[in-house]
Write a structure and sequence with these properties.
Blueprint lengths: L5 E5 L4 H12 L3 E6 L5 H7 L3 E4 L4 H5 L7 E4 L6 H6 L1 H22 L4 E7 L22 H20 L2 E7 L1 E3 L6 H11 L4 E2 L6 E2 L1 E3 H14 L6 E4 L5 E2 H12 L6 E2 L10 E2 L4 H5 L8 H15 L5
Parallel strand pairs: 1-2, 1-4, 2-3, 4-5, 5-6, 6-11, 7-10, 8-13, 9-14
Antiparallel strand pairs: 9-12
């Protein structure tokens, strides 16, 4: 990995942040974290962090770091469309303001660091489900997507003006053991309690990728970060309908459950979100964990870890 020895993970306590911290530590790097959130003892031991700073990412918190990282994996930011709609100012601060502070700090203190930014397929907006029709500029339709785009723009400007080395990975539907939100978690909670009503028609398509595969992509993306800012999608390019996903989960947790879709869509969510995997394939990545295997593992974790509410 380009001789790098020290990695700084922003959003280290989050689902993706803790997964990438573990992967880099496993690869022999010294990993440090910064951001909000608490690490439980199991996650802390697993991530093997050498140190961390807790707090909202801003100029003052960054200036308190006595560290010149070789690689920065920028996972901090808003984490859902619905939360961004409910509180746009908070989502902006977590995603856009934190990225501006980070870019300025890197330019002054660690200009040779390679930055990998975990953006989102939400930046594609209405073209999220049509990889072959997407172009530039992107046109997001939710505050979450707009803020991710603004964060990308900040890093692109910094790459051009300050020579920062950046790679952008636009992630799609990430799941895996330990995730306690979004559709996989929601479906498990409903089906284990025999409450099986879901938003939408069930025909909406998503590109699901297990988090350990995502960690591998972020590891590889650091190698190609440069001031030309390569952009790649973090997804397989294979769509799975929500009805198919729910059926996989039901077969694991509650076979024979009657599932109903309300037909009501969630604001800001496109009908389909599919990655174009070509740029990721070009750096040697493709998902290794098939969806049915990943869901089997998730359901096993869910059954072991969660006490059902009856």
């Amino acid at each position: 990995m380009v001789g790098a020895k020290t990695v700084l993970v922003t959003g280290y306590a989050g689902f993706i942040g803790s997964a990438i911290s573990y992967r880099y530590a496993k690869a022999g790097f010294n990993v440090y974290g910064i951001g909000n959130g608490e690490l439980g003892p199991i996650t802390l031991a697993r991530s093997n962090l050498k140190g961390w700073k807790k707090g909202e990412i801003c100029r003052d918190l960054l200036q308190s770091i006595e560290l010149k990282p070789d690689i920065i994996i920028h996972c901090a930011g808003g984490s859902s469309v619905s939360e961004s709609i409910e509180n746009q100012a908070a989502d902006y601060r977590r995603t856009v303001s934190s990225t501006q502070a980070l870019a300025s700090w890197v330019a002054r203190n660690a200009p040779n660091a390679r930055i990998v930014y975990t953006s989102s397929g939400a930046v594609y907006g209405e073209k999220a489900g049509a990889p072959d029709e997407r172009g530039s500029p992107v046109v997001p339709v939710s505050p979450y997507g707009r803020h991710k785009q603004q964060a990308e723009d900040i890093l692109m400007r910094s790459a051009k003006q300050d020579g920062l080395k950046v790679a952008i990975v636009r992630l799609f539907s990430i799941y895996g053991q330990g995730l306690r939100k979004q559709i996989v978690w929601d479906a498990c909670c409903k089906l284990i309690n025999h409450r099986a009503d879901f938003f939408g028609t069930g025909l909406e398509k998503r590109d699901f990728v297990e988090v350990t595969d995502v960690a591998e992509l972020l590891l590889l993306a650091a190698d190609v970060a440069d001031n030309k800012v390569p952009i790649m999608d973090g997804g397989s390019g294979q769509g799975t309908t929500i009805a198919e996903l729910v059926e996989l989960i039901a077969n694991n947790l509650s076979p024979g459950s009657a599932v109903r879709f309300t037909g009501s869509a969630r604001a800001g969510d496109p009908d389909s979100m599919l990655a174009n995997p070509q740029a990721a394939k070009a750096i040697g990545w493709s998902p290794r964990i098939a969806l049915h295997d990943g869901i089997d593992r998730y359901c096993s974790w869910f059954s072991r870890s969660i006490v059902p509410v009856r």
